[in-house]
Design goal:
Structural class of chain C: mainly alpha
Largest sheet of chain B: 2 strands, antiparallel
Shape of chain C: globular
Order of helices and strands of chain C: HHHHHHEHHHHEHHHHHEEH
CATH class of chain B: Mainly Alpha
Structural class of chain B: mainly alpha
Distance between the termini of chain C: 28 Å
Number of helices of chain B: 14
CATH architecture of chain B: Orthogonal Bundle
Distance between the termini of chain B: 43 Å
Chains: A alpha/beta, B mainly alpha, C mainly alpha
Strand content of chain B: under 5%
Number of domains of chain C: 2
Helix content of chain C: over 70%
Order of helices and strands of chain B: HHHHEEHHHHHHHHHH
Strand order of the largest sheet of chain B: 1-2
Oligomer: heterotrimer
CATH topology of chain B: ABC transporter involved in vitamin B12 uptake, BtuC
Number of strands of chain C: 4
Radius of gyration of chain B: 20 Å
Largest sheet of chain C: 2 strands, antiparallel
Largest interface: B-C, 45 and 44 residues
Helix content of chain B: over 70%
Shape of chain B: globular
CATH architecture of the largest domain in chain C: Orthogonal Bundle
């Protein structure tokens, strides 16, 4: 089966404490998949495992069928997986434009080029323009990233994440800390920029999850207790008990 | 041969313990405050010079107590009025500050005491032969140094593991914010730890001064070796610092003691490009040995012997 | 068209200054000093490729400068000895290539870690090379070092580079092109990724780049240009000794870059000029000049971390925004107090120096600020301590005014949208 991202019995322990206790998951090409679960379930750890930030204790992860377990983050990124961070993780002293140009460089094949000025690379500049437009930051192009407002920074974070040619995108709580209108804008943005790509996101906001996701997996205590379409997850008694409680209407 | 090994081991352990006296303070300061005190060896030097002055005017034994206290006080002031302002600007600023401080202290010491070594003597009460092994004597002063170093080590261990203060320090080592929220005055703890760390370095200087030469480049000679110790041992690890101190102490002492060259061992015909290297004796190589060890460790075990994975 | 011209203008001005300088300052001392400045500009800029651009603080950068110089000087001697047809202008490239070679060698080990560990490794490697210089006597020449005679190489269009003026112009040309090259590097994709690594090495990985590789390449470039500086030094001084790759030289380049300002490209250039000037002028006036350097460095770290250029840019920004006049009263109040405090400190240092270090050899009479004093009597000390104490107390009291003035300036500037 041609899964974009495939996790096989992934486990991670920190010392004697087991955080991820055997997660197996297949995410199809083009699918929009949400991972939800109570705090401390291990969602960020799972992302860190998949994106190469930390190494699994055992188990495997495969991207388009090729194993990526134990590779360093940049190797995984070069194979087509990109991620955003819960706490905005961009280049604070560089401008919006510079941030996006850096994000586009590798995938456009420029490597460590030191013989040409970046201003002359029209494809890089165009890609950055396009990204700026998509995330709505064209008016703020010269502003240093560290000075942007919170919502603008989150938008830039998404921009940097999709700046390359990655077709599997991991978004870690993209709407954290946003109010209702900002969340709506973010959801629209995410829907637009992940068209044709595979999206995996961790989210707490159920509204976002139910409006974006094709499938939902529920992570509790390092294990997936259910993985299904949104409607069936809503009705799943184990999920209700563990997580949604009576609030799920 | 056995005599060589015995004495080299003794001296090597002594040198290692001396290094550890300084490396432990440096590691504590680094682990707690994130500051790598580039001027740590300068406090060692100040301890030696203060010890010299006090022993000249009053006596060695008062110097043994007073000099480290004076050095510790200076350290506390440096933290309070210098480093504390730079905490929020990040570790590079703090490192650069201590770097500048090391520079300034060396110049001041040169200005006040001159460029030549000073005559810091072993006190008469300790100026005798401790024992005779095979054909060679071992001075009592060195035994004294060893006793002080081991005593300090034991005291530090006891303090950290068995007292309340020690527990707080251990906690603040990894979770300073949490400790602050529990009501402890973290800035004050920082000042105390910095003062204590530098006082330890001062103590090492007071006792090492009479045995090694007391001169203005003491700090710049020992400083780099100290940093090699903590990188090799693993930044932030006290056990690592201990192991690395002993390792480097022993290796360097043995290297100096073993006075033969490649030429003597492998024959006088050198491969053409090695030239000088062939004729050099191990003893001459001794100063370079810690740095070679550093490069080797970095190649095979980049986080140090006992370092944690994340730096 | 005007955009093009305004981009070229600073370079034209730079070239003009380099070309005209010997006419304005034709004396021999000036020529030597300007030659040193040229070399140090290249050296300091190469250092800032690591510190300012990529966030790598090195305590052992003189290794590449020194080794470049040593290889260059041996190359010169080889050319002379074997009567090869090589002339002087190409020699700095030999130094550069040597720097590059060692940069690759040591860089592979050094760049595995970043941050504080990198700094300690650079220190260790610096000491390694420095200590080795006493062992490898043929290459490093032991205590006396290695000498050469630059006018014995093949002439270059009739020039044998005997006179210092010709050497100055050689240095000026190399300096111009090195500065140009290093500036151009900052505008490349590689240069941008260096900045990215400085700011957020983790994010760099997640956009597909290996921070380690970026650091390694930056390290190699940096060593290359440092080697060129070393080669030029070998030509200019006609001697290389182990001191030039030691801790003192490494500290000096750090001082130059930092005091000039690591946050801008021109900072290290300004720093190199200022420090060279001070080094030569101060050492004539007082024996404690190294102490002053150290104190100056601490002062910059604590109170002006943006360096001279950064500080100037802040004030220029205020000036352009029309808000600078708000600073005037605060500066006018604090200025005299600072001057008094500074004068007092200098007096104390000089008096102490005279009394302790030189009283035996030169007596305690001295000349300070144009006054004849006797350092063994009490009055000068009282004046010195009083000046310092009062000056410092006043500064502490009045400094908040400066802070407030800047708040007013910044509010004004942000309000006008200059932020």
């Amino acid at each position: 089966m041609n899964a974009a991202l495939s996790l096989v019995d992934l486990r991670k322990s920190f010392g004697p404490v087991q955080i991820i206790r055997g997660v197996s998951l297949d995410i199809a090409e083009g699918e929009r998949h949400a991972i939800i679960g109570p705090n401390g379930a291990g969602k960020s750890t799972l992302f860190n495992l998949v994106s190469g930030r930390i190494r699994p204790s055992s188990g495997e992860a495969r991207l388009h069928g090729r194993p990526i377990t134990g590779l360093s983050p940049f190797e995984i990124n070069r194979r087509g997986l990109s991620r955003s961070f819960q706490i905005t993780n961009v280049f604070p002293k560089m401008s919006v434009e510079e941030n996006l140009r850096c994000a586009a460089l590798w995938s456009l094949g420029y490597r460590y080029a030191f013989w040409t000025s970046i201003d002359r690379l029209s494809d890089v500049c165009e890609r950055a323009e396009l990204l700026m437009e998509r995330v709505g930051l064209t008016a703020r192009r010269h502003v240093p990233a560290g000075v942007l407002s919170y919502a603008e920074q989150r938008a830039l974070e998404i921009g940097v994440t999709i700046g390359g040619s990655a077709d599997v995108v991991l978004l870690d709580e993209p709407t954290a800390g946003m109010n209702n209108s900002e969340t709506e804008q973010a959801v629209a943005l995410i829907r637009k920029v992940t068209e044709g790509k595979t999206l995996v996101m961790v989210e707490h906001d159920m509204g976002v999850v139910f409006s974006l996701a094709d499938r939902i997996s529920v992570l509790v205590y390092g294990q997936i207790i259910a993985s299904d379409t949104p409607e069936r997850i809503r009705e799943n008694p184990a999920v209700r008990e563990a997580y949604l409680g009576e609030a799920a209407a | 041969m056995l005599q060589l090994i015995a004495f080299s081991t003794l001296n090597g352990v002594l040198y290692g313990m001396l290094l550890f006296m300084m490396a432990s303070g440096l590691t504590l300061i680094f682990s707690m405050m994130g500051v790598l005190n580039f001027a740590h060896a300068s406090f060692y030097m100040l301890g030696a010079y203060f010890g010299f002055e006090i022993s000249r005017r009053v006596g060695f034994w008062p110097g043994l107590v007073l000099a480290p206290l004076m050095v510790g006080a200076i350290g506390a002031l440096v933290e309070r009025y210098g480093l504390r302002r730079l905490h929020r600007r990040g570790h590079v600023s703090e490192l650069l500050f201590t770097f500048g401080l090391a520079f300034v202290v060396e110049e001041l010491v040169q200005m006040v005491w001159g460029k030549l070594p000073v005559d810091y003597r072993v006190p008469p009460q300790l100026d005798f032969v401790a024992f005779r092994l095979f054909d060679t004597t071992y001075p009592a002063y060195r035994v004294f140094m060893l006793v002080i170093a081991v005593g300090m080590f034991a005291a530090l261990l006891a303090l950290l593991t068995r007292t309340r203060v020690g527990l707080i320090i251990q906690a603040a080592l990894t979770h300073p914010d949490m400790v602050a929220m529990l009501g402890h005055d973290v800035p004050k703890i920082f000042m105390l730890v910095f003062g204590a760390g530098t006082a330890l370095a001062g103590l090492a200087g007071v006792i090492a001064g009479p045995a090694l030469v007391t001169q203005p480049d003491m700090a710049s000679l020992l400083g780099p070796i100290l940093f090699v110790v903590i990188v090799v041992g693993g930044l932030g690890s006290l056990t690592g610092a201990f192991v690395a101190s002993l390792l480097i102490g022993l290796v360097q002492t043995f290297a100096v003691a073993m006075n033969f060259s490649f030429a003597e061992v492998l024959g006088p015909v050198a491969p053409p490009f090695l030239g000088d290297l062939w004729k050099v004796t191990i003893a001459e190589l001794a100063p370079v040995v810690p740095y070679i060890l550093l490069v080797l460790v970095l190649i095979f075990r980049p986080t140090g012997l006992m370092g944690r994975r994340e730096s | 068209m005007t955009a093009r011209l305004s981009a070229l203008a600073p370079w034209l001005a730079f070239a003009a200054i380099l070309a005209a300088a010997p006419r304005v300052f034709p004396s021999a001392t000036a020529l030597t000093m300007m030659s040193v400045m040229g070399v140090m500009i290249i050296f300091a800029l190469s250092y800032n490729m690591l510190l300012g651009q990529t966030g790598l603080l090195s305590f052992g950068h003189a290794v590449y400068y020194g080794l470049g110089g040593f290889v260059a000087i041996h190359a010169m001697n080889a050319v002379i000895h074997n009567k090869l047809g090589v002339s002087i202008p190409i020699i700095p490239l030999v130094g550069g290539l040597a720097g590059l070679a060692f940069g690759v060698l040591f860089g592979l080990v050094s760049t595995r870690r970043a941050g504080i560990v990198f700094s300690m490794i650079s220190l260790g490697i610096g000491e390694l090379v420095s200590s080795s210089s006493f062992i490898l006597r043929t290459f490093f020449g032991g205590e006396e070092g290695i000498t050469t005679n630059r006018s014995k190489l093949a002439p270059f269009f009739g020039h044998k580079f005997g006179p210092q003026l010709e050497v100055y112009y050689l240095i000026a040309v190399w300096c111009f092109f090195c500065v140009l090259a290093m500036y151009a590097l900052t505008q490349t994709p590689f240069g941008r990724m260096c900045n990215a690594v400085r700011e957020n090495p983790e994010r760099v990985e997640f956009v597909g780049y290996s921070p380690r590789m970026v650091r390694l390449i930056a390290f190699c470039f940096s060593a290359f240009f440092a080697g060129i500086a070393g080669g030029l030094a070998a030509i200019s001084f006609e001697i290389m000794n182990a001191q030039q790759l030691g801790a003192q030289q490494s500290s000096l380049v750090l001082l130059m870059a930092y005091i000039g300002g690591v946050g801008s490209f021109a900072g290290p250039i300004v720093g190199a000029v200022i420090i060279t000037l001070l080094q030569i002028m101060l050492s004539d006036v007082t024996n404690a000049w190294q102490l002053y350097f150290g104190l100056m460095f601490i002062g910059v770290v604590m109170f002006a971390p943006e360096g001279v250029v950064g500080w100037t840019m802040l004030h220029l920004r205020a000036l352009r925004g029309g808000a600078a006049w708000r600073l005037a009263p605060a500066y006018a109040a604090v200025g005299p107090a600072l001057a008094a405090s500074g004068a007092g400190a200098i007096m104390i240092i000089e008096l102490t120096n005279r009394q302790l270090a030189e009283a035996r050899s030169e007596g305690s009479a001295m000349r300070l600020f144009g006054f004849d004093l006797d350092a063994s009597t009490l009055p000068p000390w009282i004046v010195a301590i009083a000046l310092f104490a009062l000056g410092t107390a006043l500064v502490l009291r009045l400094w908040p005014r400066v802070g407030d003035a800047w708040v007013a300036v910044n509010t004004r500037l942000n309000f006008r949208g200059e932020g």
